[in-house]
Amino acid sequence: MNRFSVLENPEPFLSNSRARNIQRNNKRDLQPLEIVELDIQGPFKLKAINQTKLNLKIVDKATNYTKIEFLQSKSSAPIAEIFQRYHKRIERQTGRTIKRVRTDGDGAFYGDFLQYTESMGIIKERTPPYIHHLPPNVERAHQTITNKAITYLTDSQLPRH
Questions:
Q1: What average pLDDT does the structure give for the chain?
Q2: Which of 34, 60, 70, 137 is within CB 3.0–4.6 Å of 52 for a Cys-Cys bond?
């Protein structure tokens, strides 16, 4: 290939360079706690033993470490309290700091939760609730845990209620 052949047919050259750049950007190594995703799942038809119908999942994007907490209601105060406990515990254990928190547009992630993240210098990002072709880690965690729970309940042969 000489230096003028690119000018005659630039398309293959450009598409290959774009593909290489996209791959390089996607392979960027995330550090633990650089991005933490949160989402609420529920309400479910069945109540848990502690009478809850909702759960909050907190997923570290780099390590896929998942923390599940059960909620009585979908309000900002208990979510902020749960996140505060998680934040203190995980930072003490790892020695790293949470840099970004990603949530969907749910109103429960505003109010007390937003005040706490802003006071701690954590950037809160809003993402679409579910991207069909590329599900975020927390949505994948919803699917995995729900499938496991259904399997366990079916194998246990307990009554449906």
A1: 80
A2: 70
